């Protein structure tokens, strides 16, 4: 079959633009951050409570560490993805071109803004 699988509006491209991909990027980074943070929180919780016997207080402390770290990492990576996507969309609309220079510029600007806040 040589026909298209999807019906596209006249003049529309077959690939997703940077704006459409931004939603996937932001959501994916939030989910990845939450998963990584939860695993890190579990590691830290087990390390901090290693001298405690298995009981409800220990379980609650570990669970608190998991949720706290999960939220922290999800917010951090989601914010970075939001900045990267916003810079990418603005640069693409400003330049009127879709190329690798947009990606490099968006990544550079995101890194510069992130480091300018004094974070390591």
From TrEMBL:
The answer to whether keyword Transferase applies is no
Tell me the InterPro entries matching this sequence.
Tim23-like
Compartments, as annotated in UniProt: Membrane
Q: Which residues form the signal peptide?
A: none
Could you list this entry's UniProt keywords, alphabetically sorted: Membrane, Transmembrane, Transmembrane helix
Kindly state one GO CC term assigned in the UniProt record.
TIM23 mitochondrial import inner membrane translocase complex
The protein's topology relative to the membrane is: Multi-pass membrane protein
**BP GO annotations:** protein import into mitochondrial matrix
Coiled coil (residue ranges): none
* Single Gene Ontology MF annotation: protein transmembrane transporter activity
Q: Which residue ranges run through the membrane? A: 21-42, 72-91
Keyword Lipid metabolism present in the record's keywords: the answer is no
What is the designated name of this protein?
TIM23 translocase
Tell me what organism the protein belongs to.
Answer: Piprites chloris
Q: What is the lineage of its organism?
A: Eukaryota, Metazoa, Chordata, Craniata, Vertebrata
